Amino acid sequence: MGYKHIEVKPTSGFTGAEIGGVDLSTHLEDEVIAEIRKALLKWKVVFFRNQNIDHAAQVAFTARFGEVTYAHPHEDEPIEEHPQILPVDRSRYERKNGLRRSSYESRWHTDVTAAVNPPAGSILRAVNVPSVGGDTQWTNLVAAYEGLSAPLRELADKLKAEHRFNARLRIPSNSKLAQRIAANPIVSIHPVVRVHPETGERALFVNPGFTSHILDVSPQESELLLELFFKQITKPAYTTRFRWHNGDIAFWDNRATAHLAPQDLDHIEVERVLYRTTITGDIPVGVDGFRSEIVEGEIFNSELPTVLKNKAEKVAEPALA
Question: How far out from the chain centre does Cα 5 lie?
Fold first, then answer.
């Protein structure tokens, strides 16, 4: 396979590979980083077992692949000294949002596609995961696109779609999460098929978590087309499933994958704590050269979102005498 410094073992025919021979707690030579990137581009998601690194090491490893973003556009309680890290913590989520869920997004989704520049990649580190249940699944959006018939690929190449937070969720309007989304709406228009900036591959860039509708078609046509595309990207043939253990790390190409959080934990009293970092992404470009456009919101990168910055400054203002 052309790897001199790492071991690469695929986990399915289209998607996913475990990488061995790497200790992420140490400084990795540029050649090792290049081989990890090569494996990531081919398999779309790669896994590292039994790493046991801390917050600082996770941020440092992420930074070897690009600028590390702020934790999340709606994260107003960042980890002290590590604002790049988003806790994926069931008990924290319930306390913070008043909703009983094991994940911020419980449907198939690509991270933060409501932003005009969704993250290029995401890295998730397991710290305290249950011994039973809690698997995560990924799907290969390039394979899904290539699996469409030629006439459907030609149609998809021409389409654009709106992505937004809370696109298809029925979150109670009085919940803390719904209030934060309303205070900081983030909406973008993306090509339905994006061209990967590194490989040139075409990926079917829609997902049930964020895609609200397809532009320039009737509502009925939009729903039928999205149903077809959603079924295509979630076909088992294109997916891989990962069984977490404490210390494991998953690293996925967010430009070419969607993933599904655990579906089997909401009725069980277990703790599940992981930490996510993301890499600043480029603005997607379609087959016809269309570049994604902002409807509401701003570029997502390492900076604290303006709405959160304004909130923090307001809290810090001294009281008038």
Answer: 27
Domain ranges of the chain: 7-304
Under DSSP, the state recorded for 238 is G
Sign of the CA dihedral with 127 first, then 77, 124, and 4 last:
negative
Residue with tokens 């590390």: 68
pTM over 0.85: yes
| Residue 122 · residue 47 · CB < 8 Å | no
CB 269: neighbour CB atoms within 10 A? 7
Give which of 89, 119, 116, 84 is closest to 101, Cα–Cα.
Answer: 89
Choose among 227, 215, 251: nearest CA to 19: 251
Nearest to 203 by CA among 140, 109, 293: 140
Residue indicated by tokens 């050649």? 31
CB 262 within 8 A of CB 134: yes
Degrees to nearest 5, angle at CA 53 with 41 and 139: 30
Give residue-wise pLDDT tens across range 107-145.
899 999 999 999 999 999 999 999 999 999 999 999 999
By C-alpha distance, which of 198, 113, 191 is closest to 157? Answer: 191
CATH code at 7-304: 3.60.130.10
Q: Per-residue confidence at 91, pLDDT binned at 50, 70, 90?
A: confident
Instruction: Extract the tokens encoding 178.
Output: 């719904």
pLDDT at 320: 46
> What are residue 74's phi and psi, to 5 degrees?
-115, 15
The catalytic residues are 109, 111, 259, 276
* DSSP conformational letter for 217: S
- Show the tokens assigned to 5: 């410094």
Q: Assess whether pLDDT exceeds 90 at residue 175.
A: no
Angle subtended by helix axes 176-183 and 90-97, to nearest 10? 70
Strands (E), 243-306: 249-253, 257-260, 273-279, 293-296
pLDDT score at 268: 84
